[in-house]
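Record type: ASSEMBLY
Status: queued
Input:
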Amino acid sequence: MSAAAATHDEHHDHGPARGLMRWVFTTNHKDIGTLYLITALIMFMVGGAMALVIRAELFQPGLQLVDPMFFNSMATLHALIMIFGGVMPAFTGLANWMIPIMIGAPDMALPRLNNWSFWLLPFGFVLLASTLFMEGGGPAAGWTMYPPLVLQTGAALPFTIFSIHILGISSILASINIIVTVFNMRAPGMSLMKLPLFVWTWIITAFLMIAIMPVLAGTVTMLLTDKFFGTSFFNAAGGGDPVLYQHLFWFFGHPEVYVLILPSFGVISQVIPTFARKPLFGYSSMVYATASIGFLSFIVWAHHQYTVGMPIEGELFFTYATMLIAVPTGVKVFNWVSTMWKGAMTFETPMLFAIAFVVLFTMGGFTGLMMSISPADLQYHDTYFIVAHFHYVLVPGAVFALFAATYYWLPKWTGRMYDERLGQLHFWLTAISVNVTFFPQHFLGLAGMPRRIADYAVQFAEFNAWSTVGAFVFGFAQLIFVYVIIKAIRGEGEKANDEVWEGAREHGLEWTLPSPPPYHTWETAPEIH
Amino acid sequence: MKIFKLLLAVLGWVLSSRARADYTLNLTEGVTKLSHDVHDLHMLILWICVGIGILVYSLLIYSIIHHRKSKGVVPAQFHENTKLEILWTVIPFLILLSMAIPATKVMIEIYNSDTMPGPTDLTVKVTGYQWKWRYEYLGEGIDFFSNLDAKSNEARQLGANIDPAKVDNYLLNVDNPLVIPVNKKIRFLFTGADVIHSWWVPDFGWKKDTIPGFITDGWVKVEKPGIYRGQCTELCGRDHAFMPIVVIAKPEAEYQQWLAEQKSKGEAATAQAKAEAVKTFTKDELIAKGQEVYNANCASCHQPNGEGIPGAFPAITNSPVVNGPIEEHARLVLKGKGQLMPPFEAVLKPAEIAAVVTYQRNALGNSKGDLIQPAELPAQN
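Status: finished
Output:
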């Protein structure tokens, strides 16, 4: 009797451990998801503060605040931190939280690996941030780290490279975990073509990451040996080629931008059907479009290098291949609009961010299409036009998708509704200021302002001032977002029911669980119809 | 409310108090046939994007206005339509074709300089340095550096307290502009001396990277006389923002006149350099000349005070090289070292090298006390 009772008890336990050690040793996908999300939020604040240093210096012509070298460091670290510290960990956090729940699995397939892939991150970032205090200052050659310039970096160079190695290992491990989980742990009946779009976009993202992260790691290691061990991979005087670095970097770099945006497509494809109260339009074409984008992303890299003096065959091949990406991307936008068409929409904060995503990401898509055209890009290249373009796809693109996801799932995670009024305020401040910040940069670029300059000619003063004002409003508006999250975590606000959003049960397994879900979910696999 | 007032104040300030320079919204049409073609292509793709945008956004806005729950709409449940989906794959593809064809034409024109009548009239070799440009007129014996002009340079220093709006062409002016004739086919050969730079004059319709160890090229035929300004567009280190490009296009006769002046100036300079190469200077002369040379050529990396940037650029102050044998010191300056220290024999004249070596040994915290005369420099080649 007593033996039976003891076994029974062992089956029960399963609240989390207490105290700090819960977070250090946790193998629970929800805990690890939370850790990733909080890390990403902190990194957004750090990277955002750096952006504000940049914008403050650019408020007026002339140098007022910082040395150009520090300005270059800020631009470099802002990009590295936002990409590797902000957007990527945030989506990995969402994947950890949501994928097991969405596919009816009890946890990630490799829980200990999961713990490790998270805990590599803080060390990677401390290493990266520590370079700011080193002899010669932080890395200042841009996040693309082109040689020979990057070889002029001081003591920061090896530390920057090692931190990229660490962050890369973390991404590869997380990707392996996601792929193994989705392919092996789906609930019976959850066929691949029934997977929620968020899961689909993440599988493709994970494959991209496994393919490209080793290329990046190898490439930056070649920088390391060029600098310290006398090799000449990228030194023409020793038989190498500086442009080889650019080819290798962008072979990583272009799929990398899809690593940042594909999971956003997934989030938007979850949010819009819920608030339109209508199934996603063109589910299978969404899957195929995502896969096509993933494939195309590997054969377009040199569109970042139209000005290096490629042969015309190269220029034209990369032009055509890049233009082709507009087709599957267009399919996605049309599908989202058709999902909304004849739906019964309501406009809670997640939906607002999702609609803004569709509108503004499409803007970024248009400028992307313009820049794919190589003869025109000979003018646009390395000006503020490209700065405007990639911020349109990354801020109202990837970051708005993260906002939408957070507002959408926060009630599920915490069991509390967020404050809708504050959410709406956050949305409107953010959506307006993001355009005040980045829209004028199109004009600056067309008028001839190069990117990555610490000071500029007076005819660029007008729009730079606007851009800076927008950036500061944008930055401080994010404090509302932080406050909303803290309130929900502290258990303030109205209790959320299981479904959270009206009719959401139809749109995913997560809405059939209690809010917040118990520490362990789907110990018995759900039935999928 | 307070925040709101503050915002209004900031906006008011932005709108009212600034010196209003001319600004533009669109890409320049430029002054070459290529730049016109690129501009037309830009306008074509821009309008196509605007058209698609209007279509997509109107559908979206219509849907947002009419298909909302608050209007009592019962949601439809359709979720696919094969015909529609094929249609919106094929039509965008056709639209892309309509952009790809003119794009290909322009690209071929840019690459195919044979479409230009007649052979190349002038070839200029452009070398990007940290942070200045060097222009060599091949076959003409003209070779000079082009730096940011002194007024901009003064005003751009951190904490300079000079209003940039009061500086003529702030950051877009140089000491020695590139001068070319109009209506002639001019070929540029580009390379980099240290890191990658990129040479861009928007009015010419293209930019090209200058890559150390490699030669890239481009060509222009400028239609009308004028002053055309541009900047380096590839991040090249600390002073990336401060290496502008100024090209003056002159009618043939004026260009020939300029050419003759430059040649006689160049001959005088060569004669002077020759004389100075065997002249014996006093120590003070060498130090004074060396300071100028140091500030123009060495200070950007080794810093004006000679302390260098630890980990990146060695200090001159207390340097073992500077305090070692003077011939070795001079050889390092002449021949360069590794990827980052360029061989200055290609850039500086013997007297300048002797002067800067002497200066480094007797200033910047060093007091070695010796000097080197131009004639005593280690054998070149």
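Annotation: Chain B touches chain A through 111 residues (CB under 8 Å).
Annotation: The CA atoms of residues 334 and 344 of chain B lie 5 Å apart.
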